[in-house]
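Quick start: what a row looks like.
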Amino acid sequence: MQRVTGRKAIVLISTGVDTFSKANYEDVLKAVKESNTPVYVIGLGPVLLKAAELNGTVGPLSRIDWKRVESQLQEIARVSGGRFYSPDSTIDLSPIYDDIMENLKVRYVITYKSSTDADLRSPRTVRVELVNPRTGGPLQIVDASGRTIHANVIFQESYIPAAVSGG
């Protein structure tokens, strides 16, 4: 995904069972972290198990650690900034797709790079405001009915770069 420009996301539909991959789980997590791409994971393990139980053919599926598999899929979604879904049946897929689409419509990613390379142990303060780029004043948002909403959202947080980066 690094070569893809613009907004991007991955929808991963999987049981979570790896049957032929050359990469191990740690490699996958590292790639997900570095890709800067949210992964929306739809875990089909419960659907597969229910279908197998209905057909009376659980067999090798009973030897899989499904809690671990689901936990790994959840971690992929978490580290990427995406979401994890675990439908009980395929009937639940439509609302999941709707939720993914809604999330992608309203998702904003804000990045910040300090203007100074000063001591990484000294605190930095970051302030985010919704500002109209034309006027410099507060951003006015229009809702679905066309009414103007005066949003005065200000978020301020301090952090220490060395503590965040683990360095």
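That is the whole record. The longest strand covers residues 124-129. The beta strands are 10-14, 39-43, 84-85, 124-129, 140-142, 148-150, 154-159.
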